[in-house]
Hints:
Distance between the termini: 20 Å
Structural class: alpha+beta
Oligomer: single chain
Order of helices and strands: EEEHEHEEEEEHEH
Number of helices: 4
Number of strands: 10
Amino acid sequence: MRKWEIKRKTAETDICLELNLDGSGSMDCRTGCGFLDHMLNLFARHGRFDLKVECRGDTEVDYHHTAEDIAICLGEAFAKALGDKKGIVRYGWMALPMDETLILSAVDISGRGGCYMALDIPTEKVGDFDTELCEEFFQAFTRCSGITLHVRQEAGRNSHHIIEGVFKSVARALATAVSTDERFRDEIPSTKGVL
């Protein structure tokens, strides 16, 4: 199975994260931020990834370090769990409706991390979660995973729905990209021979 465990401790956060790319969508996320727990649980369920996250962070400041450092760990876990990337589909996309919201996500497991988001989130917060942390999360995730990610908001007025749509859409796109194609199980999906 393609899985990885990471422990990361800094002056700002103490994180233990376990990821299984070939899971069933089981999740146990305790980050100290209820909204982030909700988003990570949706990410795991919709990607069919088994994900366990425990984080103790400086949430008395805000959730910035918690969100960013969890994304760093998740990105590193993705990169390690994918191994040499032989046989993966590599690309994935999803157009995901969330009530009035429509989010388009496309991923390339390219080895070249990049995050290109076009979101118009109308409020600064959902509960006590700063909405700008959605993009910060995926910037850190893509940088550490070597995944290229494009996200476009085609419609949406509700901040919760927009962010939820992003996490679900990215998870579905990633589920396709990390899946394997038996016809190419011994090949790296690149003309360069390396990703």
